């Protein structure tokens, strides 16, 4: 089972505001109760055999996911042995409760790919067959470079472990299996620059070191991500570009483990959207952060770091047409502000709720102007050091720091309660 636990806003129990189960994830795929036939094969691939200047390797599983209990399997991707004879070694193991069904697993290989399929007969509905695919990457010094690693499966679970290869583009897809990514942890972490992972219905769980772009998308499964950059890039400057997480109906949980985040400016973009699921996000704020769910709830904890220039602006956006939003904005890191600039002096924020409640907590270091309105409901407003304020039953206009560049607009467009605290909640305590 896979676990991620987020503390509610009123129950801060650790410096990171959350509790995590940091034990490795376990995927318990369905196993056949009785095995009477087996087959094992080993395949070897060398990345120097790739066509053209770019190196690539692909694994595809096209087995029919509608066969249900008849077929199960798992794909493990991990570091291998320095003495293995190929850059990439694949060990295929097939077990079956039938004397002949293992023969229905077919495979084709080329110099840079391996494809699997399962073509069962219809004469026996009680057959159980399981497939185990172990992919081993040979350790190398210096670290090997692979331009594209692509793994796609219709039925099997996918588990990617850590191993010290640099990969420009990691592409994965699981239609109906669960996906676990542990490339961002361990002594020999994986080094992908761009990650594009998707799922149709399974749970997606992982430890991710953020560098380049990260796109994690699912239709109906839950997404659980932990961002741990210093596991992967100790002593190096982090350069995340895009964090994109999307589901149609599954819930999303994304958390940065702050102990491993370097103290530096960040300019990445973050988009976390779900059509009908809930969102819990405790994340670094870069140049833009967008959180949206049509009918789910949003709970967000954003931590800015620093700006290189007083002209650098950033944006924050939350949207819940039919749900509640809770947002906590942290102060920027004090140790960075001696030499750099506070991003909360030039942040543009917009918060929209259609029908639901909006709960906003902005820290002491935020200075600018705000405009909050509720069409039908009420506003609770608390603030410190205001230069201007105008309040009514369903609106508040305030200025905190004349001439400051930040702007915040908050709207409850139909019906609900808005609760805003500006400049009182000190996140450094």
Structural description of this entry:
With 429 residues, this protein is an all-beta fold. It has one domain. Helix content is 1%, strand content 51%. The strands form 2 sheets. It has a 30-stranded mixed sheet that branches. The chain has a two-stranded antiparallel sheet with strand order 1-2. Strand 7 (105-110) and strand 8 (113-118) form a beta hairpin. The radius of gyration is 25 Å and the shape is elongated. The protein starts with a strand and ends in a 7-residue tail after the last strand. Residues 1-27 have low confidence and may be disordered.
Nearest-integer average pLDDT: 86
Rg measurement, Å? 25 Å
Query: β content, as a range?
Result: over 45%
Number of DSSP E strands: 32
**Largest pleated sheet:** 30 strands, mixed
Count of alpha/pi helices: 1
Spatial shape = elongated
| End-to-end separation | 35 Å
Helix content: under 10%
Low-confidence stretches: 1-27
**Total domain count:** 1
Q: Give the helix/strand class.
A: mainly beta
What is shown here, in short?
With 429 residues, this protein is an all-beta fold.
Keywords:
mainly beta; 51% strand; 1 helix; disordered N terminus; 30-stranded mixed beta sheet; 429 residues; two-stranded antiparallel ribbon
Summarize the SSE layout with pairings:
Blueprint: E1 5-6, E2 18-19, E3 37-45, E4 56-61, E5 71-79, E6 88-96, E7 105-110, E8 113-118, E9 129-137, E10 144-153, E11 157-160, E12 165-174, E13 179-181, E14 191-199, E15 204-208, E16 212-218, E17 223-227, H1 229-232, E18 240-247, E19 252-256, E20 269-274, E21 279-285, E22 288-293, E23 298-304, E24 314-320, E25 325-329, E26 347-355, E27 358-362, E28 368-374, E29 377-383, E30 388-391, E31 395-400, E32 406-422
Parallel strand pairs: 4-8, 4-10, 5-9, 5-11, 10-12, 11-13, 12-14, 13-15, 14-16, 15-17, 16-18, 17-19, 18-20, 19-21, 20-22, 21-23, 22-24, 23-25, 24-26, 25-27, 26-32, 27-32, 28-32, 29-32
Antiparallel strand pairs: 1-2, 3-6, 6-9, 7-8, 28-31, 30-31
